[in-house]
Design brief:
3 helices; single chain; mainly alpha
Length: 72
């Protein structure tokens, strides 16, 4: 099992890969889904609406900041 920090870093890397490919919706979904796969970050599923709200209101740049803002 990975540490919380390792897992968060992995989640962020995967989500940012989607974002760099121009798929902001997949980036948001990936971040939320992947965070849910670790016991110490599973609570993040409750934050899914916030990621969607950031995407709608602030676009891809705002979503990037949202993803990068998760502490490792």
């Amino acid at each position: 099992m990975t540490t919380r920090a390792e897992h968060v870093k992995w989640c962020k890397t995967r989500a940012l890969e989607y974002l760099d490919q121009g798929d902001a919706h997949a980036a948001c979904a990936s971040m939320v889904s992947d965070m849910h796969k670790h016991d110490e970050t599973a609570v993040m599923l409750r934050l899914a609406p916030f990621g969607g709200e950031v995407l709608v209101n602030q676009g891809a740049d705002g979503l990037r900041k949202w993803i990068e803002g998760f502490a490792e």
